[in-house]
Amino acid sequence: MNERLLQAIDDRRDDVVALTAELIRFPTINPPGEAYRPCAEFIGARLRKRGFETEFIRAEGTPGDTDRYPRVNVVARFDGRSPGACVHFNSHIDVVEAGDGWTVDPFAGIVRDGRVYGRGACDMKGGLAASIIAAEAFMEVYPDFPGAIEISGTVDEESGGFGGVAHLAGLGYFSKPRVDHVIIPEPLNKDRICLGHRGVWWAEIETKGEIAHGSMPFLGDNAVRHMGAVLQAFEDELFPALDRKITRMPVVPEGARRSTMNINSIHGGQTEDFRPGLPSPNVPDSCRLTIDRRFLLEEDLATVKAEVTGILERLKRERKKFDYEIRDLMEVLPLMTERDAPVVKAVAQGIHAIFDREPDYVISPGTYDQKHIARIGHIYDCIAYGPGILDLAHRPDEWVGIEDMVESAKVMAIGLNVLLRGTTG
Ligand SMILES: [Zn+2]
């Protein structure tokens, strides 16, 4: 075990606390994307002082980007004394809205009882701070290290990452030869390695009808009743079938270790908005339903879609006047980094050194920015690893444990040592 490296991180305990609290004080709420620029500039200024080269990349023209809410990302790079691999730590700086139920100010960065409280404390400003002190401690102890370290603070993860990692990946920031290994310090707990996520297919289904006066529905054709038949078929056939599809992916929580589908929304008929509570008396000629289907490594997207369209086609044959359209809204393929991939093995060695146990390998039920790094950047040596308890994310009184940040920074530093210097010693 490397005592100097671990001591250098212990010496930075107050620093990681102060840094996390300062990051929380930027209310980077998304939507709309508040305070992105000052938060990115704060991170850049910190790292520039340690010798990093910094770039600020605004994702102009991506969803939500305006002069009032510019999508500003920061990428910092430190090149070692000799060529070698590059390890990139990527954290999103955006947070979701605070919401109700807080007993502390969500943007004050309050430190109490060994925890830092605030919106984004665990998801994921604590992880960003831990990765920064891990890199700084490593650079201090091994000033002659080969290769390079990059740290990025990116925006819009909570809204799909289009102005953040997807944009940067499109510009080549997450591709070889620039980057070899990526660690995303999302709050997956300090002794777990997240290898990837399930796939996603979002789609909108619309059933068609024919408008008529509500007092004479027999003269029209009710699109909502047609959608009722769709939902009934989902209940009878699709949901039970999905429930039977179990995966070898170690998804957490365990309930997500199978195929799932959520009905996100349903809209039919005229709006009640203009006369509260009273829509006009019409037979609805359109009903729209959005589905959120999460699928597994064992499934392919074409089959996932065919399960739904098969039901719709059958209804078209069997049900009088039934007609529909279906539109794809989002597609993300499932991802699982292999357990013998270099970044997985390096972080596993760190977990072993600090906790004297093997890591738990997990898969996230939902996606995160790893999808863009794989699909656009073609980097597959990528994991999520960071401090914080996933269940606290997006909740009131969100916090991150100080000891958890320090320990996970040690794991990250050991990971850097393995990936760049080829040793834990
Ligand atoms: Zn997150």
From TrEMBL:
Residues 196-318 form the Peptidase M20 dimerisation domain. SUPFAM superfamilies: Bacterial exopeptidase dimerisation domain, Zn-dependent exopeptidases. Its cofactor is Zn(2+); Co(2+). Keywords: Cobalt, Hydrolase, Metal-binding, Zinc. Coiled coil: none annotated. InterPro entries: ArgE/DapE, Bact_exopeptidase_dim_dom, Peptidase_M20, Peptidase_M20_dimer, Peptidase_M20A. Pfam families: M20_dimer, Peptidase_M20. Belongs to the peptidase M20A family. PANTHER family: ACETYLORNITHINE DEACETYLASE, ARGE_DAPE-RELATED DEACYLASE. This is Acetylornithine deacetylase/succinyl-diaminopimelate desuccinylase family protein. It comes from Mesorhizobium huakuii.
